[in-house]
Each structure stands twice: as structure tokens, then as C-alpha cells.
Amino acid sequence: DFVAVHQFGFLDRYDTLAAARDGATLLLNSPHPAETVWEHIPERVQRQIVEKKLVVHCVDAYRLAREHEMGVRINAIMQTAFFALSGVLPRDEAIAHIKRYIQKTYGKRGEAVVRANHAMVDATLSHLHQVTVRKGARAPASARATTGDFVARLLAGEGDALPVSAFPVDGTYPTGTTRVEKRNIAQEVPVWETDLCIQCGKCVLVCPHSVIRAKVVGVDATSGAPQGFAFEDARWRELEGMKYTLQVSVDDCTGCRLCVEICPARDKSNVSRKAINMAPRASIRADHRAHWDFFSALPDTFVPDAGEALGLKYNKLKDVQMIPPLFEFSSACAGCGETPYLRLMSQLFGDRLLIANATGCSSIYGGNLPTTPWSTDRDGRGPAWSNSLFEDNAEFGLGMREAIDAQAALARRLVEANRVAIGADLADTILSADQSTESSVSAQRHRVAELKARIRDRLGAQAWAADLLAVADTLVRKSVWIVGGDGWAYDIGFGGLDHVLASGRNVKLLILDTEVYSNTGGQSSKATPLGAVAKFASGGKATAKKDIGAIARSYGHVYVAQIAMGAGDQQTLRAFVEAESYHGPALIIAYSHCIAHGIDMAKGMTQQKLASESGHWPLYRFDPRRAAQGENPMQLDSAPPKIPLKDYIYNEGRYRMLLQSDPDAAAMLLAAAQAHVNEQWKHLQREAWTPNPEEKK
User: What is the pLDDT of residues 180-195, one digit of tens each?
Assistant: First the structure.
């Protein structure tokens, strides 16, 4: 009897009216006014409305929320509209109930939040309008997937109609399927201002959904560009005479604004204008779709075979922006603080990457069937990803490493034993190959391809040939990463994590530290800081955060880095490169801002910076290789704390809640947390201290 569509784009993607009865009420959250919204409804949906004699109403809930400084929080608006139209309760009674619930739910966040929600409820009715239903009106063409494969059927919400035989028999799913999802949920999207851009790559780095991409191409590649497609002269000495372009996939953008907030380039005559600014998506969608299609077909400059030969570097942020990501368009929250790290990892090592992923947020947006954001490059290579449990993910990843090493050892023995048959030169080069750089890894990959071709062409009848073909690819260096959140790393899976670190094996571990169980509803973990409010710590956590980095450093043979992209993007990049190059266990602890922190997610990178500047999240790298050179393995990458802890924490709802509900307890915990931060910094300074040459004498 009542259907509400909270995202206008859902009309195009799903059969939203399949269950609607004849004469039912349809409520649309529409960016278009009631007078013109009919022309924007897909023709298929128009026919359903007419045939079922639906009564249509619309409200621009997002505009109303913005006007009341509520961002994209439209639940109170849509709820009010429902009760106003449905008749389930008398209108005034329903609104009174809604307001009481708002007070109960948001009262702890402050009176200003409650007032804004109440004002939004009051304004809803005057912005709710009936739509005139017309037959034969012009409608936009539908962009729904019409392919017959099972992924398209699932995306269309038709999974219940599929037989078991439609699914992969071995449980493997195609990669890169988020490319066809096209969620179209952003109201505003970034637009590139060419006259201000300094081509630094920061917007590319922080984009949680990999929708902002950069390329540098030859002048000849610019021909045939669609109208409005922009190029600028590339600002690289190594790429002189080439053209730089920056493009946005507007259909995949979530409108989080992180790119705008991180952009350092401003118009001196209008400081509110940056090199990246937000614009309404509806007005530019068609043109920018064409721009993205053209951009996607342009050649990639920074690929393993060519990038380093041009002088581009994997440890230089400006250069890395040109490496195609192999993690893209995930279903993570708008403004997610975790996914930029995964995107960076996929850019640096994606074509030889194996990932063991603990259950949590990263397993949901990383493999939420039927789509996965883990994709492949133009040669069909990409990360191999699999999800394991909270309690055994570290062991699962160690098993990956053990299996690869065993297969590589077998491959080497077979090459040595059949050196003459294979060809002495090729065999010797494969066995002695240096694979310390990406270009040398690529060279080894070409040699292994030649090895496999020789076996197939000339040696297939040999008894050992099939065995070597099965394991030959492990002769190319592989990168194994164990990934998960703090609930896994600090709590449930800590025993396994510690075992892996102690093993000395060449595995890498990435902790996406949100300091709370984000995926299961915001419960406290051992990573939750002193004084923060979370489930099971409603009065503020009374104990300090576990120092998992110190535990790992105590082994002496583990590479350890603590990073925060918003506080040090170059340090973040350097830590990933160093960790992967280290032949042994490496641990990266990555500060990941989260919606559970109670922040404006557009300010996520700013909060990361404040976390570091307050001393709550000091940046450092501990590299055991330095000890062998007579240097201190510990390097502090942060300056001493320069702001008090309160200037960081009271920007976040998880701390402010206690300040409002129990000011005395908040003051006591703040004092304890500040003392802990001060002591932690002194300890790190002592650990990183290096005597000058005169003192050594």
C-alpha cells in the first residue's frame, strides 16, 4: 500500500514497484521539483505508475537536510512524510511521537542536534508535494543492466529467481564487478579546476572509492576527446611535453568531500574555491560519463614495464597517483577511512598480491556478493583475495605464505634438475633473478612466461613438465598481506597475529584501526582509547589503548609502522614500500577514521592530522635493517605534540557524549588520557634517541 524510494537512482536500478498494489502511495526523495519530476522517472517506472494507478508524492529530502545543516541524514524527513501520507496514525500524533524519539535518540548529542531535527520535521510537510501523473510523457532511457549473467541478475534484485545452477560451481566469483554496479548515490560530485591544480595527487590518494584518477599521456592521445574534457601540461621533469588529466567517475562517487578537504590549492582571490570543488551531479552527469569513458580508454603511463624506466618512483606520492588502482568502487561508507589504504596497497603490489582478510568491515566491502572491488589490470592480473574468520585470519594468511614458499621451492628444484632441457641461460637467469624492484619483478614475469611457453611447445611430454607448469608462476615474487580491523588484531585474533609475528616468515599485516568494532555496531575493543564512549564502555573507557606496536617492536625482527594518511601521506607511502621490501614479518597500524567516531566524515583526514598533532597517534617506523647498519631502527616521523588532546577528541561524538552526560567523569578521563599521551611520547623519544657522533666517542 505504501512504497518509499529514498534514493531517486533506485528507480533505474531496481524494480522498486514490483510489490506495489493498485492504488498504492509512492513517496519519492527527488532532487527534481514536483512540476518536472515526471520527466525524470524512467519510462518503465512511468508505465507501472499508470497501470497500477499509483498516487505519487515527492520531497527533496537531501536539500531539506542540507538547509538544516544535517548533511545527508534524511531519515526523520522520510519518516515524517510516511506518517503524513499513510494515515497509520493521526498526523499530529505521529509527529509528536517522532519528536519524542528524536529527543530520546539524539539528546545525548546535544540540544542543537535535537533542535535541528525537530525543525527538519516541521519543515517536511511544506516541502511535500503531489506529482501529476501523465501518460505518454518523455522519460529518460533506462541504464539497468540487461545482460543475462548471474551477477547482473543479483544486482537487479532478482537473486531469489535464480536456480542453484546459475552460480559458480567452485565458489569463485568474477573480480572487478563493482565496475558495473553504478550506485549513483551522490548528490554532489567533485569537479576539477584546471587553472588551480598543482598535480600533487592528494585527492587521488584519499578517495575512499577510487573514483578520482589521474593519467599522463602523450599529446597524440588527446585527439578525439569529448567536448569539455580537460588536459593540462604535465608538471614532471621526466614527462616533459606530455599532458595531465584528472577525471571523476560520477556514477560511482559517494560525494564524501574528502578530496575537497585535502586539496591544498586555493584561489587567492576566492579562498573558498579550490582545485577540486563539489557540483550538483545531475547537471554534469551526462558529460562526465562521456569523459570517464574516454579517460578509461587512455593508456596508463606508470606500469611496471615502463614507469621506473621513465624515472617514476613507487615511493613518490606524485608519481603513484598514476598507477591504476586494483581496488575500486567498494560499498564502504562515504568518506571511509580504511579503504584509501587498501587502494594504495593495490596500486603498489596489486598484480602479485594475495590477501587474507579477517571478517569485519573490510570483508564486507571487500567481498560483498555479488560484487567485489578487487579487480585486475589490463593483463588480467590482480589481487587474490579470500576471507577468513576473526579468530584464525593470521594463521590463514601464514598458510598462504607457507604454500607459496613450498610451491616456489618445488619450482626451483624442477628448474635446476632440468636446466639443460629448459635452456641453461633461461634457467640460470630465472634462478638468480633479482626481484627487488617492480621492473625486475616484471622482467622475471616475462622470463617465467617464456619458460612456460618452452615447456608447452617442446617439453610437454616430459614427466616433470606438468608439475613445473603447475607451480611456475610462484617463481615470480608474491606479496602476502593479512588484513583486518582492530577487533581482529587487538582482541579476537591477537594470539594468531602474535604467532605470525614471532614466526619470522615473510608476511605483512595491515591493521585498519578504527579503535572500535565498527562492523558489529560500535563495541569497545582493546584499541578503544581511554575516555572514548562505545558499547560496553558507555561511561567512557577507563583503561588505555593496547600498544600493539610496542608489543611487535619488542621482538626486534619485526618491521613496524604506525601511520595516518591525513597526518603524513608521504610517510604512509614510505611505510608500505618499506614493509613490503622487508624480508620478514611487517606490521602496519593505520589510523582509520570511522562513522562510529561521530564525526563529519568529510573532515576525516583533518581528524587524522589532529590525532597526530595531539600525540594520540604518533607516526613512526621501526626498521630492523637499520640496526645492522649501526643505526637506531626506530624513527619518529611526528613532531612533538603541539595541541592539547582535547582539541582533537572533542571534535568527535564518541568523546563529546560523555562530556555532555557526565562532565565530571569526562574531565577525570581527559586528565588521565592527556597524562598517558605525554608519557607515551616521552617513551617513544627515548626509544628513538640516537647519540650524536661526539657523544658516541
Answer: 888 888 989 999 999 9
